[in-house]
């Protein structure tokens, strides 16, 4: 007998027919003798509908009232899944965030889970009852309803698995796992049986939108074994007979080092914009003067390139920010124009960040060099470079995205032997 | 300064534009120096949508989970109204049923309010904050979400007014008050400035669907002054300058006895069906034998006519039941066929119950006779008759409904001098 958390996203909960499919998957786990808690998202589109109501009511809505409104989407699906499970003969009940309770911080609309009381939950599981828990919600000080921010249901599931000391947290979604790259670009992309938390963090944050980054960080911290798999193609297995992708610690991957690739996957991200400040004084403190106003506006700066100094002690500074924050970044820099002393502010949005990720590169040199060679061979110009212990990223012209991803997927030997359907 | 409860129905809450209108009405009361609690319904159509989800999930849904699902409609509108009020500079917060709490019985999906804790509410009102309260919901044993049954928001508002010792409970709806009869049938129908609780109970239960019957009964018991008025035509006033219709105790009406009419209003109800059992043995106990199985199936029998005995000690028994329960009533009677010993079971659904209602008839004889005369003059056949202290009802062929209502409205002197627009 295992204790597991199953989490279902919005597309899996979109309508009673799909909820019945979900209930069937839950029933299978119960019949296999497992203790099961299920964490559910709102029906696809429902949270957007509710968020829009709040925005329409007031652009400056009270986040505490916003939480009352938007948390109802998961409340609805929790009750409906409990009813559906019961109708299949599986004892079940819903537990709202305030009922367990799931205690959170008071940062309404983006709260953090602080404590989950599992007393009632454990009693229910011991009685053979499935616990259905709305994701995304909790309760803050003064028993006010709170939510975790968009995509928070993955985090709810991992936190629940940690609190319950679950053997596994299965995240059901509309893809059957994590791939070596986007299969829409590379049909020969392979599903990965296992990735490490760190790899998943890098893959998720650079565009492989399978799991919310925050939930992967929490899983790593709490050592929760997470599996990503499809709620639609429930028979889909890889060559080794595994379903989905398991996300685990380094140590588990090392055990099967034989299979280990140097590079685990190729990710890309079109959500960055490039800013160049021209003719910035080339003296100590200038770079700090640029990034301080951005930090104060809570804008994340990613890739930074400081060009070699030109004549007259001046240089150009180039960096990237999320596209969604470009306007705010421009504002902040315009206001600091005199303090920084730059000549012009240039922006560029038709760019893409392509990254190769893999824990294997820790013990191997030459990964970056191989990347630059492969791109150079296809005449793909590199605008900027960043590296971490398990990742090398390059910034390129957006038009070259697909070509670059395909070239790198082949160069690192990731192509499957047979093309996927 | 007065303390008032304002209640808004589904059409008043259908979308942000209408919620803004509602917020404007609330703001006016606050600016007039009143302490205000607002009770809201779900957006029009939302509860139906949620109920259908539950039914689709399982015809035999768990009412506790149904309550979790359907209570979310009012949760949404509560948060949205609080946001809208704040955006107009009116301090406000939502209080969900479990937060106050509003304690109810455990009859999920049709719970009764048992106790409302007003401690937190009173503190909020004293702070000048508007309390926005979702109607229809409460919390039962074990902190499980409960609902009061369809139309329960009127009951929530009256219960809240009683618990808060409010000076008035204003029920805003899509009509501007209670009329002497349906203005779609009689354009010269007049809006009533005041009716008694008992009259309202009779008018509501026979078809004037302005207020949920249960809420009127509660208002009578708790002596809550209820006013029904429109949230749309907010300038509409009657000849005496009153807005809406006030529903109060007998004693308040007596004070203005000069204006008092013999009959307050004419109601009609097309939701009944007639059952006739032919050739039933005419002996003691037979009638009990007919109505016992119906009572056991919780089917309300309304009008009963036992025909004069024919030959051979047999008679026909005719009575009415709600149309919605006709099939179940037939089932129950088929099963008791041998015990009762009837010959045939005949049903008729094209019938209508027309009633004249008024506390004035207590002290006047001849009301029923005037009714029969007026109907006979127009050759309208009476199938059955029932009377109470303040009501006379007749059952007629459905086709004659409008004619009968008009004839009676004129006969009792209820027509306005000028036709309504």
Entry summary:
Chains A, B: InterPro entries: AceGlu_kinase-like_sf, ACT-like_dom_sf, ACT_Aspartokinase, ACT_dom, AKii-LysC-BS, Asp/Glu/Uridylate_kinase, Asp_kin_monofn, Asp_kinase. 2 copies of one chain form a homodimer. Chain A contains 14 helices and 20 strands.
Q: Characterize the quaternary organization of these chains.
A: homodimer
* Annotated CATH topology of the domain at 3-255 in chain A: Carbamate kinase
Radius of gyration of chain A: 24 Å
E-strand count of chain A? 20
Percent in helix of chain A: 25-40%
Number of helices of chain A: 14
CATH superfamily of the domain at 3-255 in chain A: Acetylglutamate kinase-like
**Gross geometry of chain A:** globular
Biggest pleated-sheet summary of chain A:
8 strands, mixed
Largest interface: pair, residues per side: A-B, 37 and 38 residues
Side by side, the strands of the main sheet of chain A go 3-6-2-1-9-11-12-10
Structural class of chain A: alpha/beta
Overall pLDDT score of chain A? 91
CA-CA gap between termini of chain A: 36 Å
CATH class of the domain at 3-255 in chain A: Alpha Beta
| Architecture per CATH nomenclature, i.e. the level-2 architecture of the domain at 3-255 in chain A | 3-Layer(aba) Sandwich
Pfam families (chains A, B): AA_kinase, ACT, ACT_9
Binding site for ATP (chains A, B): 7-10, 173-174, 179, 184, 209-210
Protein name (chains A, B): Aspartokinase
Enzyme class (chains A, B): transferase
